[in-house]
Every structure is written in C-alpha cells, then in structure tokens.
Amino acid sequence: xxAETLALAARGDAAAWKSIVGEYSGRVYGLLRSQGANPxxxxxxxxxxxxxxxxxxxxxxxxxxxxxxxxxxxMNRLRDDARRKRRHAKPVGEGEVLEGLAAAxxxxxxxxxxxxxxxxxxxxxxxxxxxDREVIDLRHIAGMSFKQMSEHLGEPLGTLLARxxxxxxxxxxxxxxxxxxxxxxxxxxx
Amino acid sequence: MSDQHDHLHGLPDEAALRALAxxxxxxxxAFAAERSGLADRVLxxxxxxxxxxxxxxxxxxxPSFRRWGLAAAxxxxxxxxxxVYLVGQGSTVDRTAAGVLAVRAPELAPIGGSxxxxxxxxxxxxxxxAADGSGLDAGAVVLMSGRSVDDVTVELxxxxxxxxxx
Lengths: 190, 166
Hints:
The structure holds two protein chains of two kinds. By secondary structure, chain A is an all-alpha fold. Chain A has helices spanning 3-10, 14-34, 39-56, 66-88, 94-103, 113-126, 130-141, 146-153, 157-189. Chain B is built from eight helices and two strands. Chain B has helices spanning 3-6, 14-32, 38-58, 63-97, 113-121, 124-129, 138-145, 149-161, and strands at residues 7-8, 11-12. Chain B has a two-stranded antiparallel ribbon with strand order 1-2.
C-alpha cells in the first residue's frame, strides 16, 4: 500500500480508505480463518481490526510496515478473543483446534472437485508445526512479501526463505503421506 | 514424477514446491472470497471511524506534532510527579538529618542569604521556643547547608536573638 494512499486515508479520504479495505479485508479475514477462527468470528474480528486501524491511522507514520502493523493487530485481536473465551469455556486442546480447522470445508460459493483437494491441503497445513504454519500463512494467506515477513517477524530475509522452503517440503511430505494412506485404504476396501 | 526427479541431493523438486505454493495461494484466495460482501461490510463499519478520526486529528494536523504535544504533556506530568515526590522525600530526609527538628515550610517574612536557608531548615516554632539554642542541632544544619559549624552556629544565634525573623 502506497504511503500516499495511507496519508490520504489518514486525512479522511473515503476513496483511499475504501482501497485499503478492498486490498486487505479479505487477506485479514483469510489469515484469521487459517488460524482457526470460524467464518462469523473471522468477519467480526476483521471488522474490529479495521475500526481500530481507522481510529489510529491519523497517528500512523508510514515506514513501509503497514501490512505488519495490520496483521499484528489482527492476530492480537484473535488471541484476545481466544483468551476471553478460555475464561468462559471448558479447556480445548491444541489437537482439537487443529482437527476442527482441518475439518472445516471450504465455505465459498464454488463447490466441486477442487474442494476435496483444498480441504486436504488445509488439513495438511493444520498438521504442520506452529512455526512452519506461521510462514505458510503469512506468505500465502496474508499475502505478505518475504521482506514484509522479515520485518513482521524480526528475522533475516535468508532465514525466512529457508524456513519457508522447509515448511513447503514438510507440507508436501504430509500431502504425499495422506495420499498414500488414502490409496492404501481404497485398496483395502477393494 | 519419479523419485529420481523428485529429489535432488535429498531436496524436493523445486517445481513441485512451486506448484504447492500456487495451491496455497489459491487456498488463500478461497478464504478471502469466502464471505461475499465482506469488504462492503468492513467499509460500512470502519468508514465513519476513519472520518471521525481525521476530523479529530485535523485540530493538530501533523502526527509528529501531536506526538510531540503528547510527549511534552507527559514530560510535564512526570516532572511534576517527581518534584512532588522529591519534596516529600526531602522533608523526610531533612527531618531525619535534623533529628528532633521538625522541618516544614514556614511562612517567612522576606529575608535573604543564609538566613533564608536556615529558617527554611528549622521549624520556626522550635527556633522561637529554644531561646538558648539548645534545641537546635547545628551539626545537622551544617550537613544540609554545606556551611562550617562556626558560621551556622553564629547565624543561628543571631537568628534566634532576632526572634526567628528579621
């Protein structure tokens, strides 16, 4: 997002703010979904995040870190929500959360053969370690560049590239393992 | 794809990883498109906030200026708090150092120089009631004023003989 657009939005320019919302609302929502939020919660938190950004934008000084700021607010808000819920609900293990996430079928309007593949992919991502999932989600769901991720996570660019490469390799191995399991299951049934 | 092509020196084939990355990108786009009208609803909720925020901000147009303003206000508040604390602490220290002398800020007639310092350090009532100076600890005053014992003793005597004020 250009510094000019951000400055305009900070001065109350409706068109500039609309372009920011158009550019990022889906990505913020997607990141929240990938972290296990259900569609309703993800939308609620997304709206809350943009209201926060709108309120603070006038004080924001652009240093090329808008994305990092935005996604950090989103993640913190989701953690706050989870913390609040933990106070009022029975404890849920991390495994159950991941299972719930993996079981979440794509809720988009287009449903078809690709849905199964998408579900398998998300299920495999959910089985990655937290650190591997972090780079995958920031890169592919939030749509951050490696440079932005480097600033966001405070890690050198080279380290992040290596982490991403390793995470992809692990994901591929998980997918291949799942596919082999499915084939074995089908063979047993036949 | 064969295993031979799949793995080179133990690393997965880059093309396969790129394909996987593309699938992940598609997954991200699918998430983003999951709720139709999301951007409109987010815009409806946040646009009034950004307008209101901009109006408020316009009273102090530059973010850095506002920041400096807030920093200055915070600094003044901090200095005030520290000053109040130190004055309080100073009184305690004075009392401790002066032993039996109860020190407070006396309402003084305008006097100057070392007398002002001495009167400020010594409780006015104590000074007035100890006509011979026995109730005063000149040594403590020396410590606090940095003056010689003789000077302080002489000035105390002069001050007491003058009834605490001149």
